[in-house]
């Protein structure tokens, strides 16, 4: 993965991250977030995966049902945010829509995605950091407003 700071003004930074074949997106994005101390970011991306794992949140189980994607797909849309949890650790929340060769689509929470041939991600970090707290009722870490 290669990255570059494109713009910085008044505490806001804009980065471009270009992932290479074989890169696992969530692992590399988390490393980038930690290295740059990101905690108030939003991102969008397009590209393609050779395989991925999506998640669908099962309200009754309070856990994600894993959806394996074992074929080449287009990343039609990947959007998300990076925040901090109660311990100050980075948290990534990402959703993806993946297009199959027949034109159908799969969607859900992105748990894992292996790039082929590339993924282009635009990330904006704002000066104000966002924090998440664990919500007992939902079983999720929710953004504090």
Provide the fold topology.
Elements: E1 2-9, E2 12-20, H1 25-35, E3 41-58, E4 63-69, E5 73-84, E6 90-99, E7 105-125, E8 132-135, E9 140-143
Antiparallel strand pairs: 1-2, 2-7, 3-4, 3-5, 3-7, 5-6, 6-7, 8-9
Explain the overall architecture.
With 145 residues, the protein is mainly beta. It has one domain (2-143): 60s Ribosomal Protein L30, Chain: A, CATH 3.30.1330. Helix content is 8%, strand content 64%. It has one helix at 25-35, and strands spanning 2-9, 12-20, 41-58, 63-69, 73-84, 90-99, 105-125, 132-135, 140-143. Strands 1, 2, 3, 4, 5, 6 and 7 form a seven-stranded antiparallel beta sheet that branches. A hairpin with a 5-residue loop joins strand 5 (73-84) and strand 6. The longest helix has 11 residues, at 25-35. It is flat, with a radius of gyration of 15 Å. It starts with a strand and ends with a strand. The mean pLDDT is 94.
């Amino acid at each position: 993965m290669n990255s570059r700071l494109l713009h910085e003004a008044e505490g806001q930074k804009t980065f471009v991250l270009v992932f290479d074949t074989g890169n696992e997106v969530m692992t590399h994005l988390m490393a980038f977030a930690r290295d740059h101390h990101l905690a108030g970011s939003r991102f969008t991306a397009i590209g393609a995966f050779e395989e991925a794992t999506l998640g669908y949140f099962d309200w009754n189980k309070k856990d994600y049902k894993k959806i394996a994607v074992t074929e080449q797909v287009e990343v039609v849309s990947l959007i998300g945010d990076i925040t901090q949890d109660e311990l100050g650790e980075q948290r990534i929340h990402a959703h993806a829509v993946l297009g199959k060769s027949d034109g159908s689509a799969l969607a859900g929470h992105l748990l894992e995605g292996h790039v082929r041939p590339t993924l282009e991600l635009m990330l904006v970090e704002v000066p104000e950091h966002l924090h998440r707290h664990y919500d007992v009722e939902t079983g999720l870490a929710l953004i504090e407003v």
